[in-house]
Design brief:
The complex is a heterodimer of chains A (172) and B (277). Chain A contains two helices and eleven strands; from the N terminus they run H-E-E-E-E-E-E-E-E-E-H-E-E. Chain A is an alpha+beta fold. Helices cover 17% and strands 24% of the residues of chain B. Chain B contains three helices and eleven strands. The chains are: A alpha+beta (172), B alpha+beta (277).
């Protein structure tokens, strides 16, 4: 009987953990590399004659929430307009790049301006193993990809607007 | 007495387990609203109601598991871009609704959408000549049937106009506004007056010029990015179609930035999109 109780406890904990592993998407933000430091020059995105960027992270994984805000037409990586730090550039010159495909990989997101750029990765804590978990994870990435696009488009075009990326997803 | 205690503890943990797994412990994604604030067929994500990708009906998909003679079962998706020719060439795309809340029939009578037209004329490019939905409606620009070749369409905003470049991925992918006049990229100036309408697994790009109106059709027989498990085909097809359509729609808007692009890339492993807004 004692063994049965322990078994049920472990089963319950396992189901709880598995269920929540696919309910969360962590956004990890990292500065991007310089064009000169791009490991693969073919990856460099030339936006205009005077603005190119390298879609590669500059350093290792460092999970953290990140907020972009439009303060009077300039985009900052900052939580409010009272603290104007980490300017990416003017809203008209700031872009975001998305990559999407039919599976789990490749839902990375870059928010880049002429002065600064950031890499955000949508990923959850553990690679799912069951078919239903894989499907749920892909669906969740697709949905968050759309939410990110909607939010960033609004943020880039509306002064005072912001996008908050954290472990639970995207919010305005 | 000891056995009864164990039994009660077991029942308690069973109840907690069912509570946790039935959603009782789940957090709201945004904390801003609940699912009940979204319309039917939508899901709340980050405080925004988006169309659900899991409950829609997909058109034009065979069951790849049971049809080994279908060349579309080779584990890749394809992108077809047609110039309008006749309804028979894109009837597959008209067979059913993509999302029920889209205006899917705006293309039917071009007079109702003046100045937009359903174009006439020659057919456009096919990402994989082996992978078209309707072989009679394709004039592939890729000679032979090399399934491993990746073919790319790049829509780019330059000088307030929308352009489409197409060709092999290695060259077209990196093309910029400086390159839109290079004939090796097969440039097509779509112009600045553009409307889009989604239907089935494709969407129409309608312009005042019938030679630049076209249908972009996504075909996902299977989707398996290299080294990863098979993905859900209906969700993937609808997601990629909608994402592509939204990207090109954004490029067509007046506020689109110079150099913004939508790259639609077809490989043997499926469809990939690179989007710069």
């Amino acid at each position: 009987m004692k063994k049965m109780t322990i078994f049920i406890m472990l089963l319950g904990m396992g189901l709880f953990i598995a269920d929540n592993a696919n309910a969360l998407v962590a956004f990890t933000n990292l500065p991007i590399k310089t064009v000169a430091g791009c490991s693969n020059p073919a990856r460099v995105i030339k936006v205009t004659n005077t603005f190119s960027f390298c879609p590669e992270a500059a350093s290792g994984i460092a999970g953290a929430a990140i907020t972009f805000i439009n303060c009077s037409g300039t985009i900052y990586k900052s939580s409010s307009c009272s603290s104007l730090v980490n300017a990416l550039g003017s809203a008209s010159d700031t872009h975001f790049k998305m990559h999407a495909n039919g599976g789990h990989a490749g839902y990375d997101l870059f928010v880049v301006g002429p002065q600064l750029g950031y890499y955000l990765e949508m990923d959850n804590d553990a690679m799912p193993t069951t078919d239903i978990d894989k499907k749920n994870m892909a669906d969740f990435k697709m949905a968050n990809s759309k939410a990110a696009r909607t939010c960033l488009n609004k943020m880039l075009s509306t002064t005072g607007s912001k996008c908050i990326f954290n472990a639970t997803g995207v919010s305005q | 007495m000891k056995k009864i205690s164990y039994l009660l503890i077991s029942l308690l943990f069973l109840a907690l387990t069912f509570y946790a797994c039935s959603g009782g412990s789940k957090r709201s994604i945004s904390g801003i609203a609940t699912d009940t604030s979204c319309a039917v067929g939508q899901t709340l994500v980050g405080g925004v109601c988006v169309n659900s990708t899991t409950t829609v009906t997909l058109c034009n998909q065979d069951d790849p598991q049971n049809n080994e003679t279908d060349t579309r079962v080779m584990g890749w998706g394809g992108i077809d871009v047609f110039k309008m020719f006749s309804t028979s060439c894109y009837e597959d795309a008209l067979a059913c609704d993509h999302y029920s809340n889209y205006d899917c029939n705006s293309w039917v009578d071009p007079n109702d959408k003046a100045p937009y037209k359903v174009g006439l004329g020659s057919l456009g490019a096919d990402a994989f000549c082996c992978g078209s939905l309707n072989p009679n409606c394709n004039a592939p620009v890729v000679s032979g049937c090399a399934g491993g070749i990746a073919y790319t369409y790049k829509f780019i905003k330059c000088d307030a106009d929308l352009y489409m470049l197409h060709g092999m991925i290695g060259t077209v992918r990196q093309a910029t506004c400086d390159d839109i006049s290079q004939q090796s990229y097969n440039p097509l100036k779509i112009g600045s007056v553009v409307a889009l309408s989604i239907k089935g697994s494709g969407f129409f790009i309608l312009t005042p010029d019938e030679d630049t109106s076209m249908l972009v059709q996504m075909v996902v027989a299977k989707s398996q990015p290299a080294g990863l498990p098979w993905a859900d085909v209906p969700s993937v097809a609808n997601f990629l179609t909608e994402l592509s359509k939204d990207c090109i729609s954004t490029l067509a808007s007046d506020s689109a930035k110079e150099g913004s692009f939508c790259v639609l890339n077809s490989t043997r492993y499926g469809i990939e999109l690179d989007l710069l807004y």
